[in-house]
Amino acid sequence: MRRSIATVSLSGTLEEKLHAAAAAGFDGVEIFENDLVASPLPPREIRALADDLGLGIDLYQPFRDFEGVDDDLLEANLRRAEAKFALMLELGVDTLLVCSTTAQAASGDDARAAAHLHRLAETAAPYGVRIAYEALAWGRHVNDYQHSWRIVADADHPSLGVCLDSFHILSRRSDPAGIGDIPGEKIFYLQLADAPYMAMDLLQWSRHYRCFPGQGGFDLTAFTRHVLAAGYTGPLSLEVFNDVFRAADPHRTAADALRSLSVLEDALSREHQPGVTAGPQRPAVTLTRLPEPAHPAGYAFVEVAARPSTATWVRTVLAGLGFAHTRDHRSKPVELWAHGHTRILLSSTDPRLGHTWSDDTAVTALGVEVADPDRAAQRAEHLLAPALPRRRDPAETRLNAVAAPDGTALFFCPAPTDREETWLADFTAAPVHTPTHGGATPLTGIDHVGLFQPFDHFDEAALFYRSVLGLAPAESLELAAPDGLVRSRALTGPGGGPRIALSVSVLGRGAQADAAGGAQHIALACDDIFAAAQALREGGLAPLTIPDNYYADLAARTDLPPALRERMRADGVLYDRAGSGEFFHFYTPLLDSRLFFEVVQRTGGYDGYGAANTPVRMAAHRAEHTQ
Amino acid sequence: MRRSIATVSLSGTLEEKLHAAAAAGFDGVEIFENDLVASPLPPREIRALADDLGLGIDLYQPFRDFEGVDDDLLEANLRRAEAKFALMLELGVDTLLVCSTTAQAASGDDARAAAHLHRLAETAAPYGVRIAYEALAWGRHVNDYQHSWRIVADADHPSLGVCLDSFHILSRRSDPAGIGDIPGEKIFYLQLADAPYMAMDLLQWSRHYRCFPGQGGFDLTAFTRHVLAAGYTGPLSLEVFNDVFRAADPHRTAADALRSLSVLEDALSREHQPGVTAGPQRPAVTLTRLPEPAHPAGYAFVEVAARPSTATWVRTVLAGLGFAHTRDHRSKPVELWAHGHTRILLSSTDPRLGHTWSDDTAVTALGVEVADPDRAAQRAEHLLAPALPRRRDPAETRLNAVAAPDGTALFFCPAPTDREETWLADFTAAPVHTPTHGGATPLTGIDHVGLFQPFDHFDEAALFYRSVLGLAPAESLELAAPDGLVRSRALTGPGGGPRIALSVSVLGRGAQADAAGGAQHIALACDDIFAAAQALREGGLAPLTIPDNYYADLAARTDLPPALRERMRADGVLYDRAGSGEFFHFYTPLLDSRLFFEVVQRTGGYDGYGAANTPVRMAAHRAEHTQ
């Protein structure tokens, strides 16, 4: 299907928006009037630029407060419309979005509104312009798509149809099934926007918090299915008012936007069965089909970069938790630390040896085990994930990798088999095994990886992991850290697979993004939290100290036995409970303000991350940092 | 009266919050439980620290979901409460805030709630603890202060009273007059918070958008008057959940907070007539009384700093608009440019000559004409405005100046009289008068000054100008600039006086705060916009070019005569209308991405700032900037 984006969804000047939309691969744009009014380019030059960029102009919008007025104002409104029709001729755009009126003085008489819209369509026809009438969710009289359709049907003019906008329909929790009652050829335009569910004024929600499909809480697959089933064949067009996107790099935003439509089309292509729902008049639409999602079974490895002065600390943590330095990469300064099938790569950022992706301590790469690495890479490529080049000698394994929005490398690794080591063959036995402390520790794998995101790329990151790996995002949470609010959102593979916890500073303020809140972490799973804490301690590193006040509060609000609480206190173990599930977890201190480890034990099907304890952890990291 | 602040209102660790509250001059704090739980300080050390800092601990909060539960849970809740009473003994705090329950399972039976609260008070009494029961605006059954008071009255225990919170009452638009029905001694605590009026979920509104009294839309003077009339004598305590304050410097926030209470008390002290409303039991409360607000008549001057390479441009603008360089400061590299009684100071930031407050091009100082400069300075000092030292030779006039939140210097100037030049005497005749171009231009004064604010200090700045100068703030507006949203708020003196338009990047992102959105400006008033534009042009500088598309849109949506529109287009004049008032205005290009001038003409009582045109102006500045 044709893919479009409204210029209001992107930051910058109109010219910059058009370049960004074209670069991402959109077929067309909706021109938002304010962008045109503020542009120094005359309409004909805007059209020429769009032509040069291979973009159609699919819609001009919005035209407001037209219908239901008195006769004098109707004539003035028709003159106002004619000026826009003339402009549209120059722009080469044939559809005008007309929003249902919000004027206090407007009449609520449907027949009058229909008569006015008929006049408007009649006036538009000679210009070759079509009128797409949209029910704003906060329209004065018309705020529901079925109401707008009744008026359009009554007005009965070939140049008049409806515009459907998923936000206006789903924000009011209207049932989209009724879309099937509208003839496809009378749906003149389709605007798509997702949004997180929020209890707030519809207008404010719409103007500030819309996001791209797959980033919010609406079921846009079901919604769009209804529209296609009605026979709509026009563009899938994104109209997203979002405070962050308005201030972010438009090229990044446009790629994020196109990715959202690819995932939507892919999901629809897997469901859409034209034979079942098609009527005789149904035209064919072609939906983009992507390679299957990777659905990784788990982490093949997590790679950490550290400077030589801090790598020692990472080795102490790993050895303490029972990892052994078993291998070294053949050609790069990368150590492989293993604990059973759990693997952490430690890459040196020693400038003498050449650094990797970061100059600083950080989680730099995630390796996920997938059944078909080539297919996973192809899907990622279709989703505009930048492929990462690998400098390697010819004997090394080819591993597909792409860059996540925050620059983390995502590697698609085949699972090692009994006969074949795959990528592990690039690592040779380490000359000296670092001895592990504490013997066999109770680690069972990597529970999750926590990645603090750049402010502008939080929603983009959630969609990236969702679409590339097929992970399912949970609801966003807000946490009150000592230096400001932090937003957090976890993604999990259906039926297991890797867990990723994304977080971001709600205001993107410097102090917070730099301090404890902004750190990344690796959480290791275990089946005996106290044995793990003891092993770490015996290895020479004490778990992060949690204030006694936390345990006093825990005593007040839970019935945990005093002996257990005392043991938790001694080891800095925190606690959460949900239903019959329990969660015990401790942290290491913070390295370089950038990296820490967590060890977690889940029981009884606990499926969270102990988010309520995060502010306590952040304060404890901050306290040690400022000591 | 005693002044307190809840620790949740400030950023940082508990220790940092206590230090900030004490440094600003608060008498006490409310300790928010999460701050204590995350603190490494044992309760006795927290108390000792507060003692050392001269702070009382006036409230411990919150205790949630206590009442209306089944019998088993009641016993568990009482045990939970006893743990907190023991903690409170160590902290030395005698009042516990208990919020009305939000639990789904809680009973809505008032008698049961009263019985439970009686049990709680009975349990608290031996610890010397009082229970202050608060109706949360989103409480499950109790969400109104009159309801909470009925339950407290029924429970009838000397250790049980109510806590009143202005947000919970005014957000629901409850009438605070009923507070008079509560005996003053049963109002155990008073929490004050303002908020901008927003159409959103009460909980989200409360958790993110509270602000200090005078920064939002609530009438806290009237509210507090009711509480004092009831006979309340406890602390005025600020409990403000605000995303920005959570991430800002706590010392700045605490000073801002205390300033808000000073203004509130001052306003009350001017109204409070104990003789009229006092009952026999009324105890005396002492309200802080400040010197009268300055109520400036207008601007004495606006000072602009420019580097030598850019000062030439400023001179071109000023000369073009009819200003003459009439004088130079005796001891500093400052030129006085005058047009009648309108004065702009141009200070050189040439490092060879010593720079002033900024190293860059900027509006650095505002001089306002006040009847009593000493009184104005005393008021500012009481409001914690940092006094600015003046390096001067002994012969110079002493001018009182304070620093506004963004660092702009605010000078309190006496009006020159026929007999005395006052501060103007520090300026001597310039050796060479720069000739003005265009002869007599139609300027009538300074219309307003536009100051782009640092992200963290927008609300603080509005309260600063409101409290120090007695200006009245208008509602905040949001504008969609090319690089993101901008929030804008104007302040005007009652009955004239200087106008100040504050603005801020809604997300505080770098690109926007640095580019056109972030600039400061001086708007000059005139009575003939076209004559002013022509004068500027003849002086060698063309007004900022506004796109033809803007005028095409203006033609479509207004009935302005074509000849007038064409003249506006030729001079880059923009237009706004409100009622019978009209606004014509043009801009200069942008200097150094930091400074521009505007010329405005108001007719028919127009009282706005043409805000709808601001995005067009920003795009035009941005376009010239990137050419």
TrEMBL record, chains A, B:
Obligatory cofactor(s): a divalent metal cation
Transmembrane segments annotated in the record for this chain: none
Entry-linked Pfam families: AP_endonuc_2, Glyoxalase, Glyoxalase_5
One function term, GO molecular function aspect: isomerase activity
Domain VOC as annotated: residue spans: 296-415, 445-589
Residues noted as binding a divalent metal cation in the record, renumbered to the chain: E134, D165, Q191, E239
Residues that bind Mg(2+): H448, H521, E598
Keyword Secreted annotated: no
Record keywords, A-Z: Isomerase, Lyase, Metal-binding
Catalytic activity: 3-dehydroshikimate = 3,4-dihydroxybenzoate + H2O
Pathway: Aromatic compound metabolism; 3,4-dihydroxybenzoate biosynthesis
Enzyme Commission number(s) from the entry: 4.2.1.118
PANTHER family attached to this UniProt entry: HYDROXYPYRUVATE ISOMERASE (PTHR12110), XYLOSE ISOMERASE-LIKE TIM BARREL DOMAIN-CONTAINING PROTEIN (PTHR12110:SF21)
Function: Catalyzes the conversion of 3-dehydroshikimate to protocatechuate (3,4-dihydroxybenzoate), a common intermediate of quinate and shikimate degradation pathways.
Assigned protein family: Belongs to the bacterial two-domain DSD family.
Name under which the protein is recorded: 3-dehydroshikimate dehydratase
